[in-house]
User: Fold these one by one.
Assistant:
Number 1:
Amino acid sequence: MSAYYPPGGFNFRVAFTGVSGMDGDDHQRFQEVSGLSFEIETEPFTEGGENRFEYKLPKRVKYTNLVLKRGLITSKVLTDWINSAKDGFFWASPYPLFQPADILVTLMNDAGEPVAVWNVVQAYPVKWSMSDFNATANNIVVETLELAYQYFERQK
């Protein structure tokens, strides 16, 4: 019987679906992905005469934002998508200018084969930031993209 070894969290791939120009691998390289988590909100319910505990009834699922970090890439494809979100969320027009994207996050094993795949549905940027510039340090410039989304589901 072979021993099971959990996969490492360093070999992964991020793919945007529905963003024109992001077909190449250069636009989808990230050094860190976080925020694939959810929490089920509950509502307390007390029953008369039962003093030992209270019931917790499930209400809805709450998803955290997906956070992507990478070294700055000078290509404008992702930046253009972020700017179109910033400019296209004004709903004065009956036809919004911005289209959210689905994102596939794939965890891979040492051989490059998919171990687990998460489909993040209808993601859109809610925050973008750049690391500080510092002339006395020798750091890589890192951009951080925070995305809200409807839900995610594990496909594999």
Note: The chain has one domain: 12-154.
Number 2:
Amino acid sequence: MGLIQEFKDFAMRGNVIDLAVGVVIGGAFGKIVDSLVKNLVMPIVGFLTKGIDVAKLNYTPPVPEGIKIEPPTLAYGAFLQSVIDFLIIAAAIFFVVKAINAAKARFEKTKDEAPAATPEDILLLREIRDSLKAGK
């Protein structure tokens, strides 16, 4: 029974639950960013590069005559595509986190903000009003 209880304590720890939620949200966000890259960014990159599909770029070195082997193909385009995807995903996450932090800071500022001190001239006017009411 000790092993089951230990596993239960581990699984119900706050950090594990937060991590699980983060993985699920990250997967969903990854699909959104993947769609952004494939459907919006890469067509623009393809247009700017005159129709070149970055993911299909590769280099096959020439093989000397008489050697009957298939030369290796270096698919550097797939690597470039992965780098572009990473940069776009990193930028998207950066902007989402920046927006969340700004909203959080704004919320905490309004929550912690104490009422402003009453200006001195208002205090003086209140004193005068109170004196006039008292008939002094």
Note: The domain at 2-134 is CATH 1.10.1200.120 (Non-ribosomal Peptide Synthetase Peptidyl Carrier Protein; Chain A).
Number 3:
Amino acid sequence: MEELRLGTVEARFADIIWSREPIPSGELVKICEKELGWKKSTTYTMLKRLCDRGIFQNESGIVSSLMTKEEYGAAQSEKFVEDTFEGSLPAFLAAFTTRKKLSKTEIEEIRHMIDSFGEEE
């Protein structure tokens, strides 16, 4: 999972793709030149790096994601909870709520998620 972690510049690049996909690679080059100040070679190097990590693909000059932004965020969250709280979501929530109190709306949203996604015994 470590290979999925994106640095700041990689995350900006990924957001460009996620917000415009599917996108022709030539158009991606133009956008990255304008928004990031990159040369064509820089864009293709970064694209290859993220394709090698299994986040994006470049098929016949069309760039698209293999993992949505939401799936990427979920994978990163799982990794964080696993590494920091030995995989315990209750331990994460306990730590989180010691510094930030949850609103009634947030508590209800969490209850709804637990009810809808909880495992049946």
Note: The helical segments are 8-20, 25-36, 40-52, 69-85, 89-99, 104-117.
Number 4:
Amino acid sequence: MYEVVSWLLEIVSAMFQGYCLQYFYGSFLESRMRNRRINGLAATVLYGVLRIGAGILLPQNNGSFGIFMRLALPAGIMAAVNYVFYRAGGKMRVFLIAVFMAVSEISVFLAYTFGQIGNVLIAMWGWCMEKEYIASASVLSAFVHVTVIGINILVFMVSAIVMYCLLKGVAKAFQEKSYGIGNTELLFLITPSLMGVLVCSLLRAILLTVEDGTPKQIYDRYPSLIAIVPAILILSLLSIVFGVRLFQDMIYRNREKSSRIILEKQVSSLQEHMGEMERVYSGIRGMKHDMKNTLSVIMQLASGKEELQAYLEELNQTMSRLEFRFKTGNTVVDTLLNMKYHEITNTVPDLRMDVEGLQFPEKLFIQSYDIGIILGNALDNAMEACRKLKAKESEAEAFIRISSFQKRELFFLKVENSFDGRLVWRRQEEFPMTDKADRENHGIGLANIKSTAEKYHGTMDFKVNGRVFILSVMMKNEKGRSENGF
């Protein structure tokens, strides 16, 4: 009975570890199969079968070769499952294998501490036998077998719960799963895991000793280790999770720093363009006014001379075209719209840009360069989407529509654009991924828009309607919230 239950527990344990492995891999990596469930099931079965086979082949002694094989063979199995069923870079693969090995090993040894309860119960049954509370040796044997089976089941349940919860915690803490891990960062991430694996290897080597031909546990010689060993194992597990969280915080800080630098560059660029465009715009208005008066006088003097009069009328029409294509009354917005429009029409000449619905209240307390940052990032994303659409479908309609309105103290800005209908998402990420190679300096436009809107106690949202991407920004337009600098 005991042997049957032990084998069943071995099979269930191997399959459960396979389930945890496919869950852990699936949280970070893309499946090779289209159906994620079938991919996960196949990974679970393969790992379970190989793990059971490895349990049969592994040496039962705790010598140097046995300890080495207990580390190398499971790592090889995990690498094989990773390679067969998941797509991943080398560094991410190393991180996942190291963490899974550490968590699985530590959870087993941590649960083994609960197995000491069985020794206490068996000693109690022996005492009951001596006091004749247990009638016969067969009853004692039955009690011992039931106790051993129950303790094995308890150890399995505790290790399973610890393993699943820890792997889930690591997967949740590591939110930037698409981040390209460097060599130094990889070493920082796997060091706690490697330490945990080595601690478990040390425990495996010294846990059982033989004295006078009788196997004894190290806990029998040093009872205080019953409390010290679990504390070390728990600290090892915590170091893995908190190491990942610290790494995640480092990514956030670096991204925030990069975002701030880009924002500062955008503000500086806007200020330069605004000053230059304001001078040009003022000069064009003055020149147009003067030239119109001059042309009017010349046309009166040239009455009766048809060729000269036709030439002057053409010149007058040319002067009329010296106007901004888009005029909203806001210098920053006018500069951006005209600059971005001329930029996009070089690659997408048939783009339709509609800004008729873009209106600003008379009293605008939102700083103009903040509106410029929001519109600039939104237009960059919309223009890139239109370029990709036209590259794939040359006959497709490319458009950008911008509108705004104010409701009480809230100012709403909406940017709609056509796109190819494809967004790249990763689980637990707030924004779609950029498909550009330099992901550190690209793909943060939506984050910049959101952070700028939050300066005015606002927010940003986006949705997809068919092949139309709709970006909505809401901000509070209140006096004292911020001063309009332009």
Note: The longest strand covers residues 399-407.
